[in-house]
Specification:
The protein has helices at residues 2-18, 21-27, 75-81, 320-333, 384-389, 432-437, 487-490; strands spanning 32-37, 51-55, 61-64, 87-92, 102-104, 128-132, 135-142, 148-150, 163-170, 181-185, 198-203, 217-221, 226-227, 246-254, 257-264, 271-277, 291-294, 306-315, 335-337, 351-356, 364-369, 372-377, 392-396, 404-408, 414-419, 422-427, 440-444, 451-455, 461-466, 469-474, 493-497. It has 500 residues and is mainly beta. It has a ten-stranded antiparallel beta sheet, covered by helices on one side. Strands 1, 6, 7, 9, 14, 15, 16, 18 and 19 form a nine-stranded antiparallel beta sheet that branches. Helix 2 (21-27) packs antiparallel against helix 4 (320-333). The longest helix has 17 residues, at 2-18. The termini are far apart. Mean pLDDT is 95; it is low at 1-17. Bound molecules: 2-acetamido-2-deoxy-beta-D-glucopyranose.
Length: 500
């Protein structure tokens, strides 16, 4: 009898460990009607595709699935498919079986993207590496201008119908732009009025209320307002500034009632930041339309940034107990950080030069003339002024300590930063924007030599020389300096000791 119960207990433990977030929601009577993740399967039995990537070299696509049913994404398959080129995430598949896939967002009432058709950008496939219980996976790194959407969904709440949702995001990647959202939005990509959205928002937005302290916060984008409670809740202490690297954000709504919950996605439990009445002024009843957005506002406002790892939407209002079990499952998935760099080390404290590798230009080095960053031919017999202009101190990344910044040797306190995707040597103004624009994550060189220098804040963009000027160029993007011809050569640099 004793042996029998131990066996039973073991089986129960195995079943509990194996359940995915959507299995838990289903047991709670509020099944997932959309389930999106580039990092893992969200049903224990799911072994289909998680996401699709497209590579720059030949435009070919491939689907990335989990290593096993219910498991972590096969990041090695992505790495091998994208070797020596760039890749973008084209589709985040819906694991619920309802076909609610997320693809490149179309233009909307507030903003268009930079694609010829006005669509938003797609995320670099390797911008947000993490590990889950030691297995490498990639999140979706949303830079301003990037967004995903589905305007023709199946089973997502409309009108005042009940729904729940959660998202796991990077608590250190945010801004105040509108709007890093995941959830329910307008099917027209236009602002059709208060209550036409019900989405998780993460960032510094001050569209109506905020949380406590200086942010970032988990808020709800209900359209024409980022809410933290009813109209009277403007910065309630119950909605704290988020400080964890990985964040679980929860929003749910049913007739007359809604809630925001949150917690550390790598440890501990969820807290309830608000639960109660709807704001007045068009939010009760709600007018949900059932589209799904990621990284943008309902009207395609696309100036926000953030990183999404996984998220779901349910039908019905999940109980707190169900969400608490989902949180335990997320914690057990073991999200952790990993290196943001690859290739030959470019060490903090060293001083370096960057030599071009394109056949035209192998005697040219990254230098600057005033604020303009360019390439110049530099030899050992040149003046020390020219040598210094082509020499750079490697310092800890101003915007992310896992990457680096490059300080001009002849202009201390000034760093290589991108602005409008051109590179400049500018004085550090101490702003969040400057520090992020001046942060670079060196990678193994795209053409097989040295390093390629990737932007932290726009990981589809790398140092590129083009007509002897320096850009943060993407492979096949909207600008002339994004040309695909010679992209991998023009973005590859041999990094050596500084001239001076
Ligand atoms: C580009 O890089 C590849 C690999 O290093 C090299 O074989 C090729 O010659 C380069 N082409 C040009 C035009 O630089």
């Amino acid at each position: 009898m004793y042996q029998f119960s131990s066996l039973l207990a073991l089986c129960l433990v195995a079943t509990l460990v194996a359940a995915g977030p959507c299995d838990i929601y289903a047991s709670g009577g509020t099944p997932c009607v959309a389930a999106h993740s580039t990092t893992r399967a969200l049903f224990s039995a799911y072994s289909g595709s998680l996401y699709q990537i497209k590579r720059g070299s030949d435009g070919a696509t491939t689907n990335i699935g989990p290593l096993s049913a219910g498991g972590v994404a096969n990041a090695a398959a992505q790495d091998s498919f994208c070797a020596s080129t760039t890749c973008l995430i084209t589709t985040i598949f819906d694991q619920s079986g309802r076909g609610n896939h997320l693809t490149q967002a179309p233009p909307g009432g507030a903003a268009s993207g930079t694609d010829p058709n006005g669509f938003d950008n797609m995320a670099a496939a390797d911008g947000a590496p993490v590990t889950l219980n030691g297995h490498k996976a990639y999140g979706v790194f949303i830079s301003p201008g990037t967004g995903y959407r589905n305007d023709a969904t199946n089973g997502i709440a409309v009108g005042d119908a009940a729904e729940g949702m959660y998202a796991v995001v990077d608590g250190t990647h945010y801004n105040g732009g509108c709007c890093f959202d995941y959830g329910n939005a307008e099917t027209s990509a236009d602002d059709t009025g208060n209550g036409h959205m019900e989405a998780i928002y993460f960032g510094l937005g001050t569209g109506f209320g905020t949380g406590a302290g200086s942010g970032p916060w988990i808020l709800a984008d209900l359209e024409n307002g980022l809410y933290t409670g009813p109209n009277t809740a403007v910065n309630p202490p119950s909605n704290p500034t988020i400080t964890s690297r990985f964040v679980t954000a929860v929003v749910k709504g049913e007739p007359g009632t809604w809630a925001i919950r949150g917690g550390n996605a790598a440890s501990g439990a969820l807290s309830t930041f608000y639960s109660g009445a709807r704001p007045s002024g068009g939010y009760n009843p709600m007018h949900k339309e059932g589209a799904i957005i990621l990284g943008i506002g309902g009207d395609n406002s696309n100036s926000a940034q953030g990183t999404f790892y996984e998220g779901v939407m349910t039908t019905g209002y999940p109980s707190d107990a169900t969400e608490n079990s989902v949180q335990a499952n997320i914690v057990a998935a073991g999200y952790a950080t990993t290196s943001l760099t690859s290739g030959p080390a470019i060490s903090v404290g060293s001083a370096v030069s960057f030599r071009a590798t394109t056949a035209c230009c192998t005697t040219r080095y990254i230098a600057h003339t005033g604020a303009t960053v360019n390439t110049q031919v530099v030899t050992s017999s040149d003046t020390s002024a020219l040598k210094l202009s082509a020499s750079w101190n490697v310092v800890t990344g101003l915007g992310n300590s896992a990457c680096v910044s490059f300080e001009s040797r002849d202009t201390p306190g000034s760093y290589i930063r991108h602005s409008g995707f051109e590179l400049f040597v500018n004085a550090n103004d101490g702003s969040k924007l400057f520090s992020e624009d001046a942060t670079w994550c060196p990678q193994a060189g795209l053409n097989g030599q040295g390093n390629s220098i990737r932007s932290w804040s726009y990981p589809a963009h790398y140092f590129r020389h083009f007509n002897a000027l320096l850009y943060a160029a993407s492979n096949g993007g909207a600008d002339t300096f994004d040309a695909t011809a010679l992209y991998v050569n023009d973005t590859t640099w041999v990094v050596s000791a500084a001239f001076a």
